[in-house]
Amino acid sequence: GGIAKGYFVEMLANSFMQNGLRSFIINAGGNIKTYGNKPEEIFYELGIQDPNKPRGITLPFKVVVPGGYSLVS
What we know:
It is built from one helix and five strands. The protein is flat, with a radius of gyration of 13 Å. By secondary structure, it is α+β, with helices and mostly antiparallel strands.
């Protein structure tokens, strides 16, 4: 399933780009794909769920992801 999900995310991102989207983020259950940057050219900042805390509580750091990169957790 991991390979299929990664492939689908890439296909979806290619479709978005071909249809003129200048920036986006796709989160497909741990497969994250970015393209472009947020307004004012700000990179995406992603928090990671702390597995020992209630849902919504992230680890005490963020991962900075420039547009055009993928992250899989």
